[in-house]
Amino acid sequence: MKKIAKKNENKDDNNIQREVDIQFKNLDNTFQGNKSVYAFFLTLAFFGVMGLVWMISFPQLEFLKKMNAQTFLNWGSFYIAIIVYFYLKLAPTLSYAALFSIAIMSFFIVQLEYVERDGGPTVILVCSIIAIVGLLGLWVYAKKEKSVSGKDFWSLLTIGPIWLWSKVFDKLKFKY
Q: Among 171, 170, 166, 6, which residue's Cα sits nearest to residue 91?
């Protein structure tokens, strides 16, 4: 996404806002509750969805088998690449923080695969439950605050992770 300049009506006319600042302000106005609750449920939802995408069968390509790299490429890899690219276009520094979070989640998804291989519950079952809990928790908490539209909820799901990271960066006084 390209950066669009909009004048901030609350400040002087020389102050230009980036698209990400405008989106974060909209999220701040819509979701004013405890950010820790949003962080918890959004993390669960993101992890669950990423795990479900990760488990979609990926074709076994011969050139990957020859390089012994077939285990490193799956639909989750494309999902991660698209998300990080989207975040990179909005706020590069925050995209690195999101990538850090995604790396930790990827580690745990692989651990769930090992548990499934050793006779535990399937990754799809575990991630489905986690995603449902996360999405329902977000929806109920957001609705408890005030009436939230589907568009606002979609914004929370798509840019919510870097919005929450922006709160951490603000506390630490890091620019993004």
A: 166
How many structural domains comprise the chain? 1
21 is written with which tokens? 């600042």
What's the chain's average pLDDT? 86
Q: What is the pLDDT of residues 15-25, one digit of tens each?
A: 668 888 888 99
Range 140-159 burial, b when 16+ CB lie within 10 A, else e:
ebbeeeeebeeebbebbbeb
Diameter of the chain by CA atoms?
63
* pLDDT, tens digit, 9 for 90 and up, residues 76-113: 889 999 999 999 999 999 999 999 999 999 999 999 99
> Would residue 5 count as lying in a domain?
no
CA–CA dist 43, 3 (Å, integer) = 27
129 within some domain: yes
Residue 114 belongs to some domain of the structure: yes
Q: Which residue has the tokens 């285990």?
A: 71
Q: How far is CA 63 from CA 66, 134, 172, in A?
A: 5, 38, 45
CB atoms inside a 10 Å sphere around CB 107? 10
21 lies in a domain?
A: no
Residues 6+ apart with CB under 8 A from 174: 93
Residue-number span of the structural domain to which 108 is assigned: 34-56+69-172
For residue 13, name the pLDDT band (cuts at 50, 70, 90): very low
